[in-house]
Amino acid sequence: MQRYQHIELKNKGLSVRGVHGIHTLLNNCLEQAVSERLILVNPARGCKLPKMERREMKVLPVSQQAVDLLVKEYKKHPGNPYMFP
After folding, report:
1. pTM
2. How many other β-carbons are positioned within 10 Å of the β-carbon of residue 5?
3. pLDDT at 33 > cutoff 50
4. Hey, where are the domains in the chain?
5. In this model, does residue 1 exceed pLDDT 50?
6. Which residues does 51 contact at the CB level (< 8 Å), separation at least 6?
């Protein structure tokens, strides 16, 4: 079952990241059940998960006007991380 469960989840529209998140949640719950002796072993332990997809980061272009405005506002409130209302 563990071999194909992630394929079924992906076919239902879940991303690989979503599958990893669900596995983490279930694994933590089942580990707690093992520690409380409600179950003997954690069936989620050792599941083979799909590999995370690595995507190249996209950098958005910023206009010089936007940079100038940011610098201008920063100079009004130096060092304040909450400088914008």
Report:
1. 0.52
2. 15
3. yes
4. 2-76
5. no
6. 16
Task: Evaluate whether 74 touches 34 at the Cβ level (below 8 Å).
Answer: no
* Spatial separation of the C-alpha atoms in residues 55 and 36, rounded to whole Å: 40
Backbone angles phi, psi at 43, to 5 degrees: -70, -15
**Residue 42 φ/ψ, nearest 5 degrees:** -90, 110
Q: How many CA atoms lie within 13 A of 27 on its CB side?
A: 13
CB contact set of 53 (below 8 Å; sequence gap of 6+) = 16
> What residues have CB less than 8 Å from 77, skipping those under 6 apart?
83
Check residue 57 and give left, alpha or beta (phi > 0: left; psi -120 to 50: alpha).
beta
